[in-house]
Design brief:
Methylamine Dehydrogenase, Chain H; seven-stranded antiparallel beta sheet; about 375 residues; mainly beta; four-stranded antiparallel beta sheet
Length: about 375
């Protein structure tokens, strides 16, 4: 198999009734899943995946961390056995972070702390990232329907000190999706799609203590339109790829762009409207120039692979695999500890939470010093 070739599904394990699952690595073969159980309670469950992609037969633990969970929750590893869940509380209608203890063997020890980081309805559509020390940031749609970035201090034992700073780039423009990643030093790149302005990328300075200095540069890279999801991924050097839904044409779009380490945004390098279907959900790098995207098309979940050169030129589809049929949706993807094994939680028919493992031919990426939960290098 060449890099990007996709083998058959190794295993598809139905675990629970629920929706909107997201996955995080705990330790060794142990993983955690946050999801909405039917009835809108928020749960974290743990399970195993071995070196061959075989999934354990049942959850190790399934813990209700809140009785009221909104459309999605996302979480991040704070320290070895502490995780923070960011979510909308649909009972009180505020936006919270909750810390939870999970031991290396998958035993969930319970809630540690909770904090309201936005007193209104905030729609969580992005993963939190680690800034430095005890400082974390989350980008989300705020109660005014604009993108907002908030920094929060969370100690390694799960104690939540509170908000450090909050910032928004401008007037409300009905933001629908956003994503933020680290570039270099105090510089971060965020992408968001809005009905008024369109798909926009911005660079922002966030200091190590959580102070958000503000906007460095902004560039509207597409026309106004709804976005179900947007993802930014680093390609090489100053080249980044933005994967999103372009509603004017009803298509999935990949655009590559230059962004300097100082936050200055250059011109669009290349555009492709074929390799990613309109409902792309998650993207991961699997080789130096090869990427995988999970998506849903016609209520069936797939994973597809395609290349982007180091200079930002997007190539044709390498391979595509149906990973879960029967009205499935919302797949995301992470790599297992062993190269070539990928884990994807998927919502199956009649709101059932599945975990699927797949063999995708990959290459080991260059070793870097990376925060274990966030990707900050």
């Amino acid at each position: 198999m060449a890099v990007g070739d996709i083998g058959p599904v190794i295993q598809d394990r139905l675990f629970a009734n629920g929706t909107n699952p997201e996955i995080c690595h705990v330790d060794g073969d142990v993983y955690a899943l946050v999801y909405i159980k039917l009835g809108n309670s928020g749960h974290i469950a743990t399970f195993t995946v071995d070196a061959f992609g075989v999934i354990g037969g049942a959850f190790i633990n399934d813990f209700q961390f809140t009785a009221n969970l909104g459309s999605r929750a996302t979480f991040i590893q704070i320290s070895a056995n502490v995780f923070a869940v960011f979510y909308l509380d649909t009972g009180i209608l505020d936006t919270r972070v909750q810390t939870v203890g999970i031991q290396n063997n998958g035993i969930i020890t319970g809630n540690i702390g909770t904090h309201i980081f936005d007193a209104g309805i905030g729609w969580i559509r992005d993963r939190p990232i680690h800034i430095a020390g005890d400082i974390y940031a989350i980008a989300y749609q705020d109660p005014a329907s604009n993108i907002r970035i908030t920094t929060v201090e969370i100690q390694s034992d799960g104690t939540i000190i509170g908000n450090v700073n909050t910032w928004s780039p401008g007037a409300p423009t009905h933001n629908l999706a956003c994503h933020i990643i680290h570039i270099s030093g105090d510089i971060y790149l965020a992408g968001y799609s809005q009905l008024v302005v369109g798909t926009t990328i911005i660079t922002v300075e966030i200091q190590a203590d959580g102070t958000i200095v503000g906007l460095i540069n902004s560039s509207a890279i597409d026309t106004p339109g709804a976005a179900q999801q947007i993802r930014i991924i680093h390609v090489s050097g100053t080249v980044y790829a933005i994967v999103y839904y372009q509603s004017a044409g009803g298509i999935g779009r990949v655009r590559t762009v230059n962004v300097a380490d100082n936050g200055v945004i250059g011109a669009v390098i290349d555009t492709d409207d074929v390799v990613v279907p309109p409902t792309g959900w998650d993207v991961i790098q699997i080789g130096s120039t090869v990427f995988a995207v999970t998506y849903t098309l016609g209520n069936v979940s797939h994973v597809t692979t395609f290349p982007i050169t180091l200079g930002g030129i997007i190539g044709a589809t390498i391979d595509d695999l149906l990973i879960q049929a029967a009205n499935s949706r919302f797949p995301n993807i992470i790599i297992h500890g062993d190269v070539d094994i990928y884990i994807m939680p998927v919502v199956g028919n009649i709101n059932t939470v599945h975990v699927v493992t797949v063999d995708i031919e990959s290459t080991a990426l260059p070793a870097v010093t990376t925060d274990p939960a966030t990707g900050v290098t």
